[in-house]
Input
Amino acid sequence: MALYHLVYQSKVIHPFSDAELAVLLEKAREFNAQYNVTGLLMYGYGSFLQLLEGDDDVIKSLYYLRISTDPRHHAARVLREGQVEQRLFDRWAMAFRPIDATLFKDVTGFVHPDAESEYGRNLLAPLATMQALEMLSIDLKRKENNT
Output
């Protein structure tokens, strides 16, 4: 079993309430704990950005058969996938972060979501995705070690 990761972005059909996000996270964490999936889910500005890590068959099945067909979002696209040496979120059945422009101000290629760019008004299009995820992984581990 090879360690695999998949990063995708999608747009929501309707904005998620805090209660809907809580239910989504609870179900994801239950599934992920059962199948040894770890990762990070970010939500904001009408978009999801998620990194999934685990066994290659589990991750591919989870994304291509469940997540990409979920009617609560559309325009899902894989930004990166493949085998990896180690997990970024090894202790997180599903870490969650609301997308906040201030979190990404130091990431190369970041464009504030309210500013125009060559990509239009889209927080995630110009974002150096793996750099941002690695930065958040380090931040979460630092906070975990301080508690």
Residues 18-35 form the longest helix (18 residues). Residues 21 and 43 are 9 Å apart (CA to CA). Residues 3-146 form a domain with the Alpha-Beta Plaits fold (CATH 3.30.70.100). Residues 117-127 have pLDDT under 50 and may be disordered.
